[in-house]
Structures are given as structure tokens and as C-alpha cells.
Amino acid sequence: QVQLVESGGGLVQAGGSLRLSCAASGRTFSRYCMGWFRQAPGQEREFVAAIRLSNGGTYYADFVKGRFTISRDNAKNTVYLQMNSLKPEDTAVYYCAADPNYYGSSGDHYDYWGQGTQVTVSS
């Protein structure tokens, strides 16, 4: 059973920073791909960033390039999302996802999901 647990969300002012964490357990994750998605109220889930745990390769949605950074600590089975220069439109529930094979932006292809962590950016 794969478990993903997100943490690090909260309330921050526009221009501020947060670092989200996703701790994974239940498998050997060294070959997994992990992604971050978000969903704002009334909106569809959208891709934010992904990382290959094997080689650290990363992939970002255009709207976060230069502001967000995804990274991993394989020894801790943990993936991070460093979010800088936050904007009110970044307000959403952020979800971590994992898959042993898929590396990309389609949430439908990730097998495992966390419960989400709320990020609220005030103006």
C-alpha cells in the first residue's frame, strides 16, 4: 500500500514563500515519478510540476516556471515543492501524486495520491 502525505501548506501573503513536502511510504520509490497538482474551488485539477526520482529530471507547468521548484530527497522518500513569489491565484489545495511508470502532466495516469494540503495566498 502506497501512502503519500503532504504537509507545509498554510496562509501566506502575496509575494511570500512556502515549501510543501510529500512523504512517501510503502514501496521502493527510487524509480517512481512524482508530481504536484492543485485544485482551486470550482476549478479543475491542474498540473504543477513533476520529477523523476531516478535522475531528478523535472517538468513544470508554464505558469510556475521561475517561481516554483520541485526537488527530491530519495533517502527520505520525500518530494518538495518550493513556492516563491506566490500570487493570490496560487490559492488551491495542492496534491502530491506518484506513479511507477508515468512521467508527465496528466493526473489520470498517476496511480497514487495524497490527501492534499491547503495553500492560501492573501492579497
Question: Care to give the gist of this entry?
Answer:
By secondary structure, the chain is mostly beta strands. It contains no helices and 11 strands.
Shape: globular
Number of H- or I-type helical stretches: 0
Q: What fraction of the residues are assigned to beta strands by DSSP?
A: over 45%
Please give the largest β-sheet.
7 strands, mixed
The helix content is under 10%
Mean pLDDT over all positions: 94
Can you describe this structure?
This protein has 123 residues and is mainly beta. The chain has strands at residues 3-7, 10-13, 18-25, 33-39, 46-52, 58-60, 68-73, 78-83, 92-99, 112-113, 117-122. The strands form 2 sheets. Strands 2, 4, 5, 6, 9, 10 and 11 form a 7-stranded mixed β-sheet that branches. A 4-stranded antiparallel β-sheet has the order 1-3-8-7, with no helix packed on it. The protein is globular, with a radius of gyration of 13 Å. It starts with a strand and ends with a strand. The mean pLDDT is 94.
Key features?
123 residues, four-stranded antiparallel β-sheet, seven-stranded mixed β-sheet, 11 strands, mainly beta, single chain, globular
List the helices and strands and how they pair.
Layout: E1 3-7, E2 10-13, E3 18-25, E4 33-39, E5 46-52, E6 58-60, E7 68-73, E8 78-83, E9 92-99, E10 112-113, E11 117-122
Parallel strand pairs: 2-11
Antiparallel strand pairs: 1-3, 3-8, 4-5, 4-9, 5-6, 7-8, 9-10, 9-11
